[in-house]
Design brief:
Layout: E1 2-6, E2 10-16, H1 21-31, E3 35-38, H2 51-72, E4 76-79
Parallel strand pairs: 3-4
Antiparallel strand pairs: 1-2
């Protein structure tokens, strides 16, 4: 999901599905953000086991967001990660791991 708020664009936050390419392009095009911070992910929690949903959100959704940002003239898209990228550990990863 994409959450849009602030910048006097919306009085309250609204959510949009990253996998809905048409709606995503419309909202990003309408807002015209300079920067987008992409924090959406699926599969980071032990109960999120649906591989299709992981691919849809993490790959297809990200691709849709990148395309929407490019088409809208967005200056930067910051894609974040999570500790799940380090795999299962018995301790919190340090900055050097």
């Amino acid at each position: 999901m994409i959450r849009c708020w602030g910048g006097n664009v919306y009085e309250s936050e609204r959510f949009f599905d990253l996998c809905d390419e048409k709606a995503l392009k419309q909202v990003v095009g309408r807002i015209g953000p300079e920067w987008v911070f992409h924090l959406a992910a699926h599969g980071a929690y032990s109960w999120q086991l649906d591989l299709r949903q992981m691919v849809q959100t993490n790959i297809v959704g990200t691709m849709n967001l990148v395309t929407a940002c490019l088409e809208s003239g967005c200056e930067a898209l910051v894609n974040t990660g999570s500790s799940s990228e380090y795999g299962l550990k018995d301790h919190s990863p340090s900055e050097t791991e």
